[in-house]
Amino acid sequence: MYTKMLIPLDGSKTAEQVLPFARILAATLKLPVQLLDVIDISAMSAHFVSDKARYLDTLIAEAERASREYLNAITAGLSGFKVTWTVIRGKPADVIIESAAAEKGTLIAMATHGRSGLNRWVLGSVAEKVLRGSRNPLFLVRAHGEGATDGAAMIRSIVVPLDGSELAESVLPTVTEVAKTLDLEIVLCRAYELAASAYYGSEDYLPNYDEMLRQVKAEAESYLAEKTTALKAAGLARVSWVALEGSGAEEIVRYAHTHRDALVAMCTHGRSGINRWVLGSVTERVVRHSDDPVLVVHAS
To answer: Which of 73, 173, 193, 212 has the smallest number of CB atoms closer than 10 Å to its CB?
Structure first.
């Protein structure tokens, strides 16, 4: 499934909030870990006027030295799996994407907030660019001001949003493997609501909205029951489903929050070229607002 975990860090405690989850995943899935810090030279040079540019090389060298010391210290706090680290010059999002792309089985694990110092990078915006631009799977954690950085996190269940499409269902093979390895409960969910076009009535005809909603709900429930049966037939004992009335992203975030120690697993499109940083999907909104970690698998 995965061959390595890549963890981008920016020197901040908020960015390190991915580490408790990385510890449990790396140890259970038996993954080597590579820590990565990126020296954004273009951001550093933007603060220098031309007659001070000669000091830039010294500042870069100092930043690299500090990064090496920092990553050595983080490495000392990780045990039970192999850990290496790398310091690379470049634009953070591009470096992360390219580093992960070198090995298809690399899982990128990172927090979606974090900043350290005037010349460092903002991990929130970088994480969104990586989500939009990378073809590798991602494990994303939205950091909080007082979030833990030590110890190992607990994951008890996987909440899997489905919408009836093959795209959404392409996350299921990954969910199956992760659930079996980590001994997790799986909860399939589907948000349902009437399409906006259903409300375009006329003076001569007013639809029975309650009946239409019942039909949409019944369709969602039938679909989820079918997928649950299929997963149980594949050897997964703890699988359930729930149909959620309301808008997709909001209902997914709300429902996952009611499950202690939940992981949300979703699939999304990755893009390249001119549309590389364009996504705007339900997955992105869940990543941005969920208090639970989100595992994102990019569709082929």
So the answer is: 73
Q: Where in the chain are all domains bearing CATH 3.40.50.620? A: 4-141, 157-298
SS3 string of 282-295?
HHHHHHHHCCCCEE
Phi/psi at 105 (5° precision): -85, 10
In this structure, the number of other CB atoms found within 10 A of the CB of residue 73 comes to: 9
In the chain, what are the helix, strand and coil shares in percent, each to the nearest 5? 45, 20, 35
Give the fold, CATH level 3, of 4-141.
Rossmann fold (3.40.50)
Amino acid at 20: P
Class of domain 157-298: alpha beta
pTM, full prediction: 0.87
State the Cα–Cα distance between residues 226 and 229, nearest whole angstrom: 5
β 138-141/294-298 pair status: antiparallel
β-pair partners for 262? 157
Q: Which residues pair with 263 in a beta bridge?
A: 158
Per-residue pLDDT tens digits of the chain, which is 300 residues long: 899 999 999 998 888 999 999 999 999 999 999 999 999 988 777 766 555 667 788 888 999 999 999 999 999 999 999 999 999 999 999 999 999 999 999 999 999 874 444 334 445 688 888 988 999 999 999 888 778 899 999 999 999 999 898 889 999 999 999 999 999 999 999 999 876 555 555 566 666 778 889 999 999 999 999 999 999 999 999 999 999 998 888 999 999 999 889 999 998 864 444 344 333 478 888 888 899 999 999 876
